[in-house]
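Predict structure. Input: Heme chaperone HemW, 414 residues.
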Amino acid sequence: MPGTPPSGEPAPADGVLPPSAAEGSAGRGFGLYVHVPYCRVRCGYCDFNTYTASELGGGASRAHYAAQARAEMRFGASALRRSGVAERTADTVFFGGGTPTLLPAEDLAEMLRGIREEWGLSARAEVTTEANPDSVDRRYLEALVEAGFTRVSFGMQSAVPHVLAVLDRTHAPERVPQVVRWAREAGLQVSLDLIYGAPGETLDDWRRSLDAALACDPDHLSAYALIIEAGTKLAAQIRRGEVAEPDEDLQAEMYEAADRVLAAAGFGWYEISNWARSPEARSRHNLAYWRGTDWWGVGPGAHSHVGGTRWWNVKHPRAYAARVSAGSSPAEAREVLDAETRRVERVLLETRIVDGLPLEALTEQERRRVPPLIAEGLLEGAAALPVPGRGPGRAVPTLRGRLLADTVVHRLLG
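Output follows.
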């Protein structure tokens, strides 16, 4: 959740969506994202909507956050009904941040209880929380399972102390295998998040982190190239010449190394930055984003999408608390996407995943651009062929195509 929201039109205080949002809603999946905006320390690279305790004053206490989130949940369920959107149970729930696990486990349980009461959870719902390795202990993880969580995503980022220091991460590398073991013993699926390309990180450092992550035997791994966001501490350090800017060529080498090492360990890529040990271990919540289904985002700065209408909440926790306490929509602005914009976004998102984009989603002119992309090694040739009984061909990126994902989309759309 980047710090700068897009522009948009004012969002109505009653939260009612346009009629187009309800069209076909019964056939779409539905999920919840819960943004917990608190962090113990602000990481130097982070541009997300997060706050440390020293940055918040009255009206934004962590102690009241679960109640505020539940107030938005009640408002949201009512707004969807009043908009004519089909009532659906949640297939996926994702608590992100920030560091959700800075709150007591009882607060996360209370917010999950709110989702159950307002929308319900499907029988096999995936319920994930992000966590820092030093923000949980064995009992905390057991409490998450008791509350109904099924999955935890640990922010490992690196196994190399000097890389963790550059990223302002507070945990020690040896903490990661310990918390992974506790999570597994509690009954949670485990994902590990890694970041590559930090200033001063070498290819050997990155391989060391990959090996350490695999030694933990996770179900899922995410690996993200470090992006320097304007306004962050790290951007200022680079501007002052204190640390080196990430090397894009080195980052490409690191990505290729990750794909090679993870494939050898039995992990398959299913989205440009994500690998899973099996299809069942893929993040269903994130796949829902990439496939453009519906979700309600709870919390300060959270983004939502229902049937082509997208909106985002006010960013500051105090402003958010004031709105939900008054029974008003916390949305700051929204945009209603037209059919062509939705189609273009589908091309952008589905060319990132292993299932690819059905070629029928492209115009006739765009389909003529597929063979040259295959010839240049950016799209899989076999995937583009129609399969009897399974539908049309699909645009699936090769390894090189994943490295040049923006180029692939630009070339397809012209």
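The mean pLDDT is 94.
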